[in-house]
Amino acid sequence: MVAAPNSPQLSTQPAWSRLFANPAQPFDLTPLPVLEGAIPPGLRGSLFRNGPGRLTRGGQAMGHWFDGDGGILGVYFTEAGAQAQYRYVETPYFQQEAAAETLLYPNYGTLAPGQIWQRWGKPAKNSANTSVLPLGDRLLALWEGGKPYGLNAQTLKTLGEMDLGFAHSSDTFSAHHKIHPETGEIYNFGVTFGPKATFQLYRCNPQGEISQQTHFSVPGLKGLPLVHDFVLAGDYLVFCIPPVRLQMVPTLLGLKTVSDALQWRPELGTTIVIIDRHSLQPISFCQQEAWFQWHFTNGYVDDHGEIVLEMVRFPDFASNQQFVEIPQGKIQTYTKGTLWRYRLAPKTAKVIEAYEICDRSCEFPITLESHTGQPWPKTFMGVHRRESDIGHEIINAIAAFDHRTKTFTMADMGANHYPSEPIPVQNPQNPDEIWLLTVVFNAPANRSELRIYGGDRLEAEPLCILKFPEIIPPSFHGKWQPAL
Fold this sequence. Notes:
Layout: E1 27-31, E2 34-37, E3 45-54, E4 56-57, E5 60-61, E6 69-78, E7 81-88, H1 92-100, H2 116-119, E8 131-135, E9 138-142, E10 149-152, E11 158-161, E12 178-179, E13 186-192, E14 198-204, E15 210-216, E16 224-225, E17 231-233, E18 236-241, E19 244-246, H3 248-252, H4 258-261, E20 262-264, E21 270-276, E22 282-288, E23 292-301, E24 307-314, H5 319-325, E25 338-344, E26 351-358, E27 362-366, E28 378-383, E29 397-402, E30 407-411, E31 417-419, E32 423-427, E33 430-442, E34 447-454, E35 464-467, E36 477-482
Antiparallel strand pairs: 1-7, 2-35, 3-6, 3-36, 4-5, 6-7, 8-9, 9-10, 10-11, 12-13, 13-14, 14-15, 16-19, 17-18, 18-21, 19-20, 21-22, 23-24, 24-25, 25-26, 27-28, 28-29, 29-30, 31-33, 32-33, 33-34, 34-35
C-alpha cells in the first residue's frame, strides 16, 4: 500500500502516488467555488465519471487498478453555478466487503482469500468501475465482466443490478457502448466464456432496453481473448481482437488471477471482425499482424466505401503490467501507445492501409458523441507532456489532433498536474465551439479541480477552474448529459 501523505516515504514517490494513498472520500452535493475564470454561460448539463475509488480494504491491497470499487463523480451545471457529489456504487459485493472490512471476492487481478479449495466457485466481484451510461433520470455504472448497476442520476444512490432484457443469465454488458447520433440506438457487446469465446451483440433503444440480441464466434479463434472496445463506423460494427489469450485451468482453479493468466501471443495475430450494424450478423473475418489496443476514437465509411477507424495502438500487452504498478505508486514498465488510422475493406476485413498519425504517447482518445460513426475533425486525448515522462508518469496533459490541419495542440498544465480523459461538450448556441472538461489532480496545491478548456485554444489558459471538496482519484471514463 502507498504511504499516507504525511509519511516521509512519500517524498521518494511520484506526486501522483498520493491519488492512491487512501480510498476516495465520498461527499454530498456541494457547490464548487471558482478558482479562476468563469463557467461558460451556455454550459448546462451534467458530467458523470466512473473509476476505481478504493483499492484497499482492511489493510489488504487489490492486485490491479481495474479491481478498485467503482466511485461515481457527478458534476451538475445550472444557472446557479456548479455542484458536485461523489459516491461509491454500492453493489452487494461492495456492501459485504465493507461490512466484513476485508476482501472477499476474486477480481481481474485479485485472488479470493483463503486456501485453493476455498476459492473454487466464488463469483468475480462486479466492481462497476469503468464507465457510465446516462439514461435520463438513471445512470448505469458499467464494468466489463458483468451486468450494469443502476443509480439515481440526481442522488447517485445505487438502485441495483439492471436487467436490460438479457437473453441469458451469463450475459455481460461492456463498458464501451456506442450511441448512434441519429437514432439514439445504443450498441454494445459482451463476451461469454465457455469452451470458446462467444460475443453477444446488443442493440438497445434510447431508454436502454435491449431490442435485438445476437451472438457470434470467430472461426479458428483459439483460446479466450481480451476485447475492451469496438467501433461503430457507418453501417458497420468493427472488432479488433488482439492476441491476448487466457489460461483457463489455472484461472478456474484459483491458482492465477485473470490478469496473471492472460498471455501475449503475437504469433496468433490480431483478428478483425466486421459486423452489419442492421442485422448484427458477421460480414467478414481477417487475421492481421499483431498489435494491442484498449481504446478506439471512432470510425466511419469513406467515399470509396472503405472503413476508416482510429485507435491508440500499442506494440504489445505491457500496459496491463503498468496498471498493476500504478496503484503501488511507482511505474517500472515502459510502454508507449500512439494514435493510428486504419482503412479496411468491409467484404474481407483486410487492412488496406495502416499508419501512425501522431507519435505522441497518448491514451483515452475521444471525440464528440454526435460524431460517432461519422468523420470527425478533432481527436482529443490524454498525453504525456514529454517523452521522458513515459515509463514513470501517468497521463499528465491533454491534447488535440486536428485532422484537417494535421496539427497537434497540448494543454500543458505544468509539472505534477494529472488530468482525466477530456470530455468534449458542444456549445448548444454555437455548435462550432467545443469545451473540454477534465478532472485534474493539482499535486502542488494538493487538490482536485475541474478545468474547462476551449477546444480550439488548448494552449491558452483554461476558461474556468473549479475546486472539488475532496481529492478525486483517477477515473477511467465519463459522459456528458446535456440539460433538457
